[in-house]
Design a protein that fits this description.
Layout: E1 9-13, H1 17-28, E2 32-36, H2 40-48, E3 54-55, E4 63-66, H3 70-83, E5 87-90, H4 96-101, E6 107-112, E7 133-137, H5 144-156, E8 160-163, H6 166-197, H7 208-213, H8 223-229, H9 231-253, H10 257-272, E9 284-292, H11 297-307, E10 312-319, E11 325-333, H12 337-346, E12 352-355
Parallel strand pairs: 1-2, 1-4, 2-3, 4-5, 5-6, 7-8
Antiparallel strand pairs: 6-7, 9-11, 9-12, 10-11
């Protein structure tokens, strides 16, 4: 920020773990941050811990982050949009019902996939989002400039920003987050029940068991809303998981050593190829994509990059002074440039590129 320039202003609605961490991270970067919480004592504690500059509503905020449980996120986002002219995003782990309920071009659904075993603002950290995936869920109605500004702000917190359609986000998160949490909770509950019979059981629960059930220690209060809002996707994945466990049971019951070994080797290989955060030490390239200056263009392009596994390191849109066209400018890994150019051309775009290093 230049000397004498007024700081950008953000508002946080819901100042718990995620909201408090957003506030800490933004304030480290020079933002003026206000916040509110349904529990006034929580907002006061966020102020005391340095996550806020002041307690107050989001009337003049450039960006409002709605960090409430998913059941109230749409209502709070609509209130924030009505309160001022700034942009609004949320952090809920279910997106389709929220995005459908908040039909405003200044709103972009979001989901930072970061957390902590600590609960509430006491666990908030300014570096919580460093190298964490932060999903944005723009639609064809999303204003491109709104998407660029929200994406830039989120990326400035150190997050690896990806774009997905809201419904696709919910289907994928059911697999990688919601059902794993329910599985861990169920396994932990099963062990706890058996421990009443065998007191030694939980003394043996070390190593792998602790690792697998660690996420069951998360705050239980948020999960009824999540399961209600994403019930269809969760139940679909649970059905597939239950069927897969039946297949595993059959392998064990039949003494099928080769089948079991094949399954375990497949799982180990898949686990070894999970990504471990965003590599910032890469050679970069700029890809310029002429687009029609209309809502939804950037949503389509950024969703395409997610589909083909290309990270966007920076993004902007240059509007044409005349006519109805602009240029989307993407900064990507130089090694990924060729695949991105090919994918864009297959979708009818006419991109150009140049190396930046």
């Amino acid at each position: 920020m230049a000397a004498g320039e007024a700081p950008q202003r953000a508002a946080i609605v819901g100042t718990g773990l995620i909201g408090g961490s957003i506030g800490l991270a933004l304030r480290e970067r020079g933002w003026w941050v206000t916040g509110t919480d349904q529990n006034e004592a929580v907002a006061a504690e966020a102020l005391r811990r340095g996550a806020l500059d002041a307690v107050g509503p989001p009337a003049d905020a450039d960006i409002t982050f709605v960090a409430t449980p998913v059941g109230s996120a749409a209502t709070e986002a609509s209130k924030a949009l009505a309160a001022g002219n700034g942009l609004v995003t949320d952090v809920g782990s279910v997106k389709a019902p929220i995005v459908a309920a908040v039909a405003d071009r200044r709103f972009v659904g979001g989901h930072p996939m970061a957390g902590s075993e600590q609960e509430g603002v006491a666990g908030a950290r300014a570096d919580l989002f460093q190298n964490a995936v932060w999903v944005l869920t723009p639609t064809d109605e999303t204003d491109d400039d709104s998407l660029v500004q929200i994406r830039s702000t989120v990326a400035s917190l150190g997050a690896d920003v990806v774009s997905l359609a809201p419904e696709r986000h919910d289907a994928l998160v059911a697999v990688v987050s919601h059902v794993p949490h329910l599985t861990a909770a169920t396994l932990m509950a099963l062990a706890d029940e058996r421990s009443e019979e065998h007191r030694a059981m939980l003394r043996l629960a070390a190593g792998g068991f602790r690792d697998m059930t660690r996420i069951a220690s998360g705050h239980p209060g948020i999960w009824p809303d999540i399961c209600e809002e994403n019930a269809d996707a969760i139940c679909s994945v649970l059905d597939r998981f239950i069927a897969a466990l039946g297949d595993v049971r059959a392998l064990v019951a039949d003494g099928n050593r080769s089948g079991l070994l094949e399954l375990l080797e497949q799982a180990r290989n898949a686990r070894a190829h999970l990504p471990y955060g965003l590599d910032r030490e890469v050679s970069l390239a700029e890809v310029r994509v002429p687009v029609f200056d209309r809502p939804g263009e950037l949503a389509r392009i950024t969703s395409l990059t997610t589909d083909i596994g290309v990270n966007i390191y920076d993004l902007e849109i240059a509007h044409s002074m005349e006519g109805g066209q602009g240029v989307a400018i993407l900064v990507v890994d130089d090694e990924a440039m060729a695949s991105l150019l090919e994918a864009l051309r297959e979708q009818g775009y006419a991109p150009s590129s140049r190396p930046l290093s």
